[in-house]
Amino acid sequence: MSWLVIADDLSGAADCAIGFTSPSTSTVVTLDAHAGPAFQADVIAADVDSRRQDPATAAARNVAAWNRFGGAGRRLYKKIDSTLRGNWAAETAALQRVAGLAIVAPAFPDAGRTLRDGCVYVHDEPLETTDIWRLEGLAGRADVTALLAAQGLRAERLETGGAMRCADALRDRLAALARQGVQAVICDAQTQDDLDRLAAASADLGVPAFWVGSGGMARALSAGDAHTRAAQASHGNAPLPPVRGPVLTLVGSLSGVSARQAACLCERGQVESVVIPPQVLRAGPAHADWARWQDRVALPLLAGHDVLAGIGRDEHFSADEGPRLSAALASLIAPHFHCVGSLIATGGETARAMLEAAGIRALALVREIEPGVPLSKTLGGPARRVVTKAGAFGSEAALWLAWQAVREA
């Protein structure tokens, strides 16, 4: 089946698209949603880089990506952050006007994200009380139905348990809501089985529709049973290229999850850690210590040693300057990126900034290291292995497992 995935950041595009990857499909992630080559892949994941844009710009970018890559029988999957960061509600509303009924299921149970009574929980804690929202400066309640209604959509919540445990009943209810003029159906899900049942029920409603969710729903739509999912986890659509050169790991995320993952990698892999002060990155090459910090990263890489480079914090630090600091970090590393064999990047903004600075515009997905952590190879230019991961995501060993994966012969 042919799919278009539209995401607001690079790590999201990749971790969602990997759910559609199997031995018989080709999957490409593109950083050029409005230009670049017209890929002939079974699955195209377009990063429209809209998370930090204003809502109107974000909505327009999503519709433009649909106009460019949609059609020709492609089904649309609107990838949103499982913790509701970014402009997902405005983007969903804009796509609903061109693609039909929005079937909204942001849950990703394998990663601890669930939807109950229309609200998001992270490991059974209400999303709005977690560090994830506090770091983003978000407020209010993580009520998906209310947030979509605020965008002018007629939104209704659908309980997937009880009587709706029957796939036929669930399909009939979705079709009935569509006939009644409902524009977005918000589907509770606390287990992967809930998402699998929803996927089966919504696969052929007989009305124009698209799906809105995170990696969990993507996996449900692409895999009908556990055997298929196991095949997806262990096989990919493109062989890993042979590479030479050290592994560069970039940590741009502010989350405590990323900090623990970085510590685990450095301890187990004996990887050299360099944490760059944010004041150096804010000033860029004009900072008196810019060259010194550039050497701190470059000299070990040039000597063939694996390096983890992270963005430090100070009292002036805020999540809003994430894109600016990520771009500066990429700029600091770019002159010596030629010697890097593999890249691991946590935080979508950080990953995109480094790939753009290195002139890498597209990735071919290979396989999944753990849920939501895909391994890719670069398309065009020197062969490299790439792992991207959302910041507040994955097990404590996620970066260590990624490091092992890219170092495989």
Written account of the structure:
The chain is an alpha/beta fold and 409 residues long. It folds into two domains: 232 residues, Putative sugar-binding, N-terminal domain (Rossmann fold); 160 residues, 3-Layer(aba) Sandwich (Molybdenum Cofactor Biosythetic Enzyme, Chain A), CATH 3.40.980.20. It is built from 15 helices and 18 strands. The chain has a 15-stranded mixed beta sheet with strand order 9-10-5-11-4-1-3-2-16-17-18-15-12-14-13, sandwiched between helices. A hairpin with a 2-residue loop joins strand 6 and strand 7. Helix 1 packs parallel to helix 8, helix 2 packs parallel to helix 3 and helix 7 packs across helix 8. About 3% of the residues have low confidence.
What name is given to the CATH topology of the largest domain? Rossmann fold
Discrete helix count: 15
Beta-strand percentage? 15-25%
Instruction: Say which CATH homologous superfamily of the largest domain is assigned.
Output: Putative sugar-binding, N-terminal domain
Please give the CATH architecture of the largest domain: 3-Layer(aba) Sandwich
In CATH, what is the class of the largest domain? Alpha Beta
Largest sheet: 15 strands, mixed
Separation of the first and last Cα atoms: 32 Å
Task: Going across the biggest sheet, name each strand in turn.
Answer: 9-10-5-11-4-1-3-2-16-17-18-15-12-14-13
| Low-confidence regions | 224-237
Q: What is the CA-atom radius of gyration, in angstroms?
A: 21 Å
In total, the number of strands is 18
What is the helix fraction of residues, given as a range? 25-40%
